[in-house]
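User: I'm preparing a small set of examples for a lab meeting where we compare how different chains pack in three dimensions. I only have the primary sequence for this one, and I'd like the structure in token form so I can line it up with the others. Please keep the answer compact; I'll paste it straight into my notes.
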Amino acid sequence: MVCKNCGADLKPGIKYCLECGCYLDDDDNDELDETGGDVTTSYQPVTLRESSAARKRRRLNLTLTDYLIYAGLLVIMIGSIIVIIVAVVRNNSQPKQPVDPNAGVIADKILTIDNYKATVPGKYNSTVQGSTLYVSDNVNYTFSYQNSLESFDSYVNDRTKLETDLAASKYEILTTSEKTVNSRLFLIYEIKVNGTKKVLYLTKGNDYYTTMGIIEIMTNGNWEEALPVIDIINNSLEFDN
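Assistant: Understood. Below is the structure token output for the 241-residue chain.
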């Protein structure tokens, strides 16, 4: 028996071609003669080649709906890529806003003390009580700041006067030293007040004044860290007369 669609050799009596799946009518079956031999038919089988696309569809068992779904997904993917490209191009074409160098910077504070004004860098806390300015970084130190009419040079030339005054105030002097910061000379006295160690500093405010105060150490700080801030404040002084 031969399939009329693809020409495949088939066993007699089957209804569907095992190669192409074509339905076979009863008339298509090869009849046997009375002796059991094949009866030759009067037609020649026509062999049709299946297209490669048809063979792929048959192997994958894809329907038209499947192809429509895949086509929709492809359109969505291409659309997403186009949107991303347009967004990137638009972002790069926009002018960049200049960065403000002063953004987040705390302004310096100008404080009036007696007959002069002092500027404290913005990152430090500060307050004025009477004739004394108090400055702190809230981490390592706090210091007081005030000007005296005494000449700084007199303290440098004769330290006994200051030491006598400290002793009269019940301050115990532990050590004395000098420290220079930005060409400014500081006299340093480590003292003990009511059992607590502190640092007394003196430096030159201007030709007529002596700047002095107490440095108190917080956490793991040291008194040397406060000296540059004191130097900045000294350089900012503006007197009314």
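A couple of notes for your slides: The CA atoms of residues 112 and 118 lie 6 Å apart. Confidence is low (pLDDT under 50) at residues 30-37, 39-43.

User: Perfect, thanks.
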